[in-house]
Amino acid sequence: MDRSTNVTLLPGCCCGLEDWHEWWEVADGGEDRPRLGHDPRPTTERFGDTVRLTLDSGARDSPTIELSAAELGHLLLGVEQDLADFTALTARWASRHLPDHTVPIAAALSRLLDLPSPACRNRQTIGRLRQRTSLPRSCARTRTPT
Prior knowledge:
Layout: H1 23-27, E1 43-47, E2 50-54, E3 64-68, H2 69-97, H3 102-112, H4 118-129
Antiparallel strand pairs: 1-2, 2-3
Helix pairs in contact: 2-3, 2-4
């Protein structure tokens, strides 16, 4: 939601939480764009350091949200932290209710959400803040392309 204009972009039917990391491609200036669903047809564009989210690319006067790529990067760091916190809460819940399955549950959720291991998370955050410095292979994402 853009609080200055009250424009909100809601994810559509083909946009899952497990694909959150695709937004880094936009923040980093890559060519790939995240899927945002359809009907309406929301799109993401990058113009220099500005990211534009259009609610319906098929409508001439569609509302848009604009933010800097750096701001998007900071928002994504917050998303990553929130998802990591959620995974930790899930592991704590599982340890109380399904103690024999705590590790597999937390690992599956981390894989689904494409989260780096806790040991790598701080290095990745620092790397992103320093304009994407390279990370050691041990901190590579675990998700396999589908």
